[in-house]
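It would be a great kindness if you could assist me with a short task in structural biology. A protein sequence and the structure tokens that stand for its backbone fold form the material at issue. I should value your view on which stretches of the chain appear to form regular backbone elements. The record follows directly beneath this note.
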Amino acid sequence: MSWSSASNRRDLESRLRRIGSQEDAEIDIAQAALLLAALDRPQLGLERYYHHLSLLERDVADIAAKEGAETSLEQRVAVLNAVLVDRYGYQGDNETYDDLMNANLMRVIDRRRGLPVALGILYLHAARAQGWEIYGLNFPGRFLLRLDLGGQRLIIDPFNGGETRDAAALRSMLKAMAGSAAELKPEHTAPVETRDILLRLQNNIKLRLIQEERSGDALDVVESMLMIAPDRGELWREAGILHSHFDNMRAAIMAFEHYLELSGPEPGREEIAELLAQLRTQLN
């Protein structure tokens, strides 16, 4: 696989918008996550990060061939953990969990620490490079992975050393996060699209920035999300609200227009339509 370095922000944005036009199955999740990370560090080249991804691919392939992982689901999990956890030392960052570095894949590779979704992206990359069937899951509160083989499946927790989780463990995790009345449902272990995993990664950054009252930076993150998911109405709505907060009238109007074009009859739609009318009046 050949990689080219993103030299500046305009190039980064162009490449992310190309991803936004791709079908979900065509998206290289780790490459896309690195491009998103580079928006925050455009002065740095990406070559050494791409090289690291190639090492993950190579090392998983080498150990899988030696261990006969092609026929065993448990062996495949063991191989992934042998490379990501044992060889390269990746682990969840419990000490500074909310640090923005934990959601920037460049920083995660530098520090070998990260959020569940960031670590999960590295697992997805390494496994998909072997042609293995692996998915991110729609599990609430904690990003998990599902590795499938021949009708069997294992749930992997990338934040905790790649440990596997059975139904009892998943139920316990769910109740700890959602309350004792919460029950495990089939949708909790249903796959999510690659694009949604990338949006989940960026959403972690956006929420932390909003908590820190850094609305301008949060708007930048929402704009990056729109580059890879331009058909998501809720993102255009959020962008419009943030733009209006900064009196970016034309940008807010455009964002709200996109939202109304893409959204259906949902709560809050009429409020946005009224706000759009007010903005147009102010602009004229």
